[in-house]
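Quick illustration, no need to memorize.
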Amino acid sequence: MQKKIYNANKYGAVPDGKTLCTSAIQSAIDEAAANGGGIITFDKGNYLTGTVFIKSNIDFEISEGVALLGVVDEASYPEFWNRVAGVEMLWPVGVLTVMSQHNVRIFGGGTIDGQGEYWWHKYWGGDRRGGMRKIYDAQGLRSVVDYDCKRPRNIVVINSTDIEIENLLIKRSGFWNVHICYSYNVKIADLKITENYGPSTDGIDIDSSCNVTVESCHIECSDDNICIKSGRDADGLRVGRPCENIVVRNCIIGKGDGVTVGSETSGGMRNIEFSGIKMSGTKNGIRLKSAKTRGGIIENIRFSDFDITDVPIIFNFQLNWNPEYSYCKIPETWQGEIPAHWQTLCRQVLPPERGIPEFKNIAISNIRAHCISEKCSSTLFKVEGSPQK
């Protein structure tokens, strides 16, 4: 049976890039969902929007010539209980959000533009030396600033099943570009993720999810290009949800930190495969990272058929990653409020041995690395272990 089409313009969406269209887009989605599902479409043009929630049995088509622009307005991104950077807390979700739904497709050849500069400047200022980061660093609060600087992601899928995201240009996210969390049976294909010059603008993050495929994507960003996660520290151990049965294949990886497992490893990971990856100009090729409070068993991870060009570190293994960020500590001189999420971040892992992650059965095969640039100088293996184990 052919799905009914619901054109967002007929619900009041205006393609001028200036009129806020959140309510109009949501109205089209809600009516389609109430009738059992359908296809959401747009006339060509630019649509300014805050968070919209895509519901079950919806095909959300952003066709070529259509761009969704994330509005620069914090109030347009309401906070919900979700997971961000390994911790469950109140935080904004995405410009497009799929929360506790099933059978959703986001596709079409168009663009999602988070217009992230406002959020980047909020974090580190226009010169990358200011903003909230400078203020928090001066007070000894480096470990919490990323959680206090609440920034929207471009696409968030959480606690959902049978999801497809394909054939889109995704750019300038305020925070991570695509976040898949607590979800099952997800297919991601033919995405181009680019123009992400701000902090923590990861490409694709797969977080405590199962049966996820990522293929034929081209990703450039300012942090992890593709990252596998499963929660951090005491909160991640409490949730205890692994990331498993993940396939990443035939992707092109440009500017960014490379393909990464961790640092949020607390829920464990298993049966992860990266293959057919072409990389050029990233900071790392393959990176495994964790910390002595993360815990988790990370096993059966395979990396094969990589072609790596002009990358300074081919394999980077960090078990004491970024201590100022990884180990939460509130200075004794702090006189202000201690929010609930600070308490969560600082909760001790007991016994301490439970916080030591265990990596095993890591296979690497057919990795080709070479330098073209005269400035390129590569290290094959860089390994930073943990003194505890």
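The longest helix spans residues 22-34.
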